[in-house]
TrEMBL record:
The gene is aspS. Keywords: Aminoacyl-tRNA synthetase, ATP-binding, Cytoplasm, Ligase, Magnesium, Metal-binding, Nucleotide-binding, Protein biosynthesis. Residues 193-196 are annotated as: Aspartate. Homodimer. It catalyses: tRNA(Asx) + L-aspartate + ATP = L-aspartyl-tRNA(Asx) + AMP + diphosphate. Its cofactor is Mg(2+). Pfam families: tRNA-synt_2, tRNA_anti-codon. This is Aspartate--tRNA(Asp/Asn) ligase. It comes from Methanocaldococcus infernus (strain DSM 11812 / JCM 15783 / ME). Its main location: cytoplasm.
Length: 431
């Protein structure tokens, strides 16, 4: 097998006369009498292979003539500068190797000349991912995750991995996927929350994890999945304001990284990404409720925000903004109270989409046990978690950022399924 020397994007008209080897899929093929044009597609783009019958060997011309769309090929050829060709050059083939032929008809068209419904695309995701526009989403996602990790490393965070098979719910409730674990019942983890808090008692101080979480929610919306990727942190000797600042830094840096390094992909998606300010607007829960009411949404104080309320608030706020000072009664048991009514919790929103939730946590054992009881939960179900709070737990805070929803923001997608390679929702367990 011929070994690739260049991706399509690495070849320029200035390489006129040089010999290269490219490899990829036949994106399209056009025969005009004694000349055949093949557009070869690889991960970085496309390149035109031009085969005039009188300039290439007979066997090479015959092989090219036999090609079909999505056949996998490698081509050795000479770069020829040509202003009329795509990208200002073409490749005249010297040797063509057919590495594999594609069956036809194809389940869908990677060239997108024939549109396909989302369900058809997800059923044939390996083909759907050949589309440059679809690949662009995941290149941007990669850029975001790379930036996120770099920010954490620069801020002194340690990457950890916590269990995804757990014995009980993270926060109580019924949104759990039960599984058989030998002779016991276990569950898929809803969140690394309890484990990352326990690690604050270890002295690691600052930890992060990028990993799947599982929620048995019956939602069938464009914003929900049952398996998602969460970016989680926990910081010792920190409060809610410290956690907010870190979240602003992570999100801002990721937006800058995508804006500066993924212009080609943003253009493919026809998405104009705006880099936010380094510090985001902040409104209280009370102010959010007032905005919703002013815009005609019926909502009572102490209720979680409805979808209608999120839309109303998002229309007024726009961009990234925080909702802070939530009622204690509607936040998880581990959230540090601010006073008798409010707690030190926050949500990061982008317009009407919640992308992150966090808080300062309760670090005092007796207060935590009482909070668990007040939520109608049994402290005995959290024995191993609570042990970590008996022997010197520092103040700490943290958050979870939805990687899939953040990708929606960065790529301008309306459906979260577009931002996950193989999405899992209530109806989809394959491929």
């Amino acid at each position: 097998m011929m070994k690739r020397t260049h991706y399509s994007s690495e070849i320029t008209p200035q390489m006129d006369g040089e010999e290269v080897i490219v490899a990829g899929w036949v994106h399209s093929i056009r025969a005009l009498g004694k000349i055949i044009f093949v557009i070869l597609r690889d991960r970085e783009g496309t390149v035109q292979i031009t085969a005039p019958k009188q300039k290439v060997e007979e066997g090479v011309f015959k092989t090219i003539k036999s090609l079909g769309v999505e056949d996998v090929i490698a081509v050795k050829g000479k770069v020829v500068a040509n202003e009329k060709a795509p990208n200002g050059f073409e490749i005249i083939p010297i040797e063509v190797e057919v590495l594999n032929r594609a069956e036809r008809p194809l389940p869908l068209d990677p060239a997108e000349k024939v549109p396909a419904e989302l369900d058809t695309r997800l059923e044939n995701r390996f083909l759907d991912l050949r589309k440059p526009r679809v690949q662009a989403i995941f290149k941007i996602r990669h850029e975001m995750l790379k930036s996120v990790r770099e920010t954490f490393y620069s801020e002194g965070f340690i990457e950890v991995n916590t269990p995804k098979l757990v014995a009980s719910a993270t926060e109580g409730g019924t949104e759990l996927f039960p599984i058989s674990y030998f002779e016991k019942e276990a569950f898929l983890g809803q969140s690394p929350q309890l484990y990352k808090q326990m690690l604050m008692a270890s002295g690691l101080d600052r930890v992060f994890e990028i990993a799947p979480i599982f929620r048995a929610e019956e939602h069938n919306t464009r914003r929900h999945l049952n398996e998602a990727t969460s970016i989680d942190i926990e910081m010792a000797f920190a409060d809610d304001k410290d956690a907010i600042k870190m979240l602003e830094k992570v999100v801002y840096n990721a937006c800058v990284s995508v804006y500066e390094n993924r212009e080609k992909e943003l253009n493919l998606l026809n998405h104009k990404l705006e880099v936010p300010p380094k510090s985001f607007d902040k409104i209280t829960y009370d102010e959010a409720i007032e905005i919703a009411k002013r815009r005609g949404v019926e909502i009572e104080w102490g209720e979680d925000l409805s979808r209608e309320a999120e839309k109303a608030i998002g229309e007024e706020m726009g961009g990234f903004y925080f909702i802070v000072d939530w009622p204690t009664e509607i936040r998880p048991f581990y959230t540090m109270p601010k006073d008798d009514k409010y707690c030190k919790a926050f949500d990061l929103m982008y317009k009407d989409l919640e992308i992150s939730s966090g808080a300062q946590r309760i670090h005092i054992y007796d207060m935590l046990v009482e909070s668990i009881k007040n939520k109608g939960l049994n402290p005995d179900a959290f024995t191993y978690y609570l042990e970590a709070f008996k022997y010197g737990m520092p103040p700490h805070a943290g958050w979870g950022l939805g990687a899939d929803r953040f990708t929606m923001v960065l790529t301008g997608q309306e459906n979260i399924r577009e931002c996950v390679l193989f999405p899992r929702d209530r109806h989809r367990l394959t491929p």
